[in-house]
Amino acid sequence: QAKRDGRDRIGEFSVAQKRALDERVMLGGRLRDALRHDELVLYFQPQYRALDHELTGFEGLLRWNCGELGQVSPARFIPVAEALGMMPEIGCWVFAQAARQMREWLDRGHRGFTIAVNVSAQQVQHPHLVEQVAEVLQRYNVPAAMLDIEMTESALMENVARIRTTLAGLKSLGVQLSLDDFGTGYSSLAYLKQFPIDKLKIDQSFVRDLPADEDDCAIVQTIIELGHQLGMLVSAEGVETQAQAAFLAGLGCDELQGYALGMPLPVMDAERYFVGVRDSFLV
Ligand code: C2E
Ligand code: MG
Ligand code: MG
Ligand code: MG
């Protein structure tokens, strides 16, 4: 077996590479039509205050219902869209969907919620991001404070000077800024200090084995303390059990998000979260 691996290594490597390239070309070709054919959908996952499980808002999560391929995960198609330079366009569509939904829910009498939108590394680097966001908020006439923009630490690593300007621009509009998947990227505490971040989202990999795993307990507790010391809110994602929810609330985590509290759902179904699906979780 070892001998075979050694002999075929280069061959297998190039086969794998070719497959990855084929997938990019294949997905990319279909992705170009996806926007036009309305195959992209924004799902909404509820976010709750940890203390009392009051709804605080939603995270918009992109879904691609491809006619030929079925539902394609964003983890699979966003890197392709990014490589093909399509994320500014797709991202713009996501912002518009989120703002339109805020307007619609406001018009239906819902109050006191935010919608979080994920942005990719290239979107953060895009020179017109601030104008795009401002335009979309104005178009749908929604308060900027209701929009929460999530970005990963890794997306903030390049062109730090430009990113500082971009984030300052977003803050001056009044939107909220969150650091997604916190703890998994190449985070530097010096950067954390420089950027106007409102919220840290603890990555789900640290939540999964709570409260049994002592290391994860220590990491999560430390992130919560760090965030609070820096004047930030701290949220946990990937909360799948009541034990995790209770443990995180006990540590002072501000917000919770995960399958235990609510799945990402299409708009029509997500509205039910306003009327307290959380109650079923509390019993
Ligand atoms: P993310 O922003 O960290 O989103 C959290 C992911 O965890 C989502 O996966 C969500 O469906 C999933 N999740 C939520 N609760 C639980 C739970 O309790 N357990 C587990 N195991 N998973 C949970 P999803 O929807 O597949 O999205 C994957 C990633 O794709 C997102 O990670 C985000 O980085 C990216 N993404 C999604 N939508 C967009 C978008 O509109 N724009 C950009 N740029 N990226 C997006
Ligand atoms: Mg996110
Ligand atoms: Mg995340
Ligand atoms: Mg993620």
Automatic annotation (TrEMBL):
Domain EAL span(s) in chain numbering: 24-278
This protein's name: EAL domain-containing protein
Organism: Rhodanobacter hydrolyticus
Region of the whole protein represented: 679 to 961 of 961
